[in-house]
Amino acid sequence: MSGDNLPPFAEGIFRSDGALTELVGSRCPTCGARHFPARAHCPDDMAETETVSLGASGTLYSATVVRTKPPFGLPAPYAVGYVDLDDHPLRIFMLLDPAHAEDFRIGMALDLRSGALGVGLDGEPCIRPYFTPALKD
Known about the structure:
Layout: E1 14-16, E2 21-27, E3 34-35, E4 50-55, E5 57-66, E6 78-85, E7 91-96, E8 109-119, E9 125-133
Antiparallel strand pairs: 1-2, 2-3, 2-4, 5-6, 5-8, 6-7, 8-9
């Protein structure tokens, strides 16, 4: 999925330089809690948070394939799931690679990618992050 010069679907969710995509979240300097998406203040102690990378890999905790009409111009069917991040103790809900919608299995290793996928709130094409099955070594 290419997407040169397209805007991200939302600011502050991920960073990509074309070769590497990583999730962006926040960390509380007081209690160390991490959040995705990023929060300005920690919900536990209301301290101001700092922006941190949350990495680009995880393990699939749970997934489902959605077969109804997709929102935002996503392909049908599409898959979503909960992913346990490898670098931080977070479980997040994310879009899964539509090209592999039927291939996801609980416990599989995943890598984060981004590309042109669907449209944003303005109806224009955009770049979205998604997890895809990890390349086997």
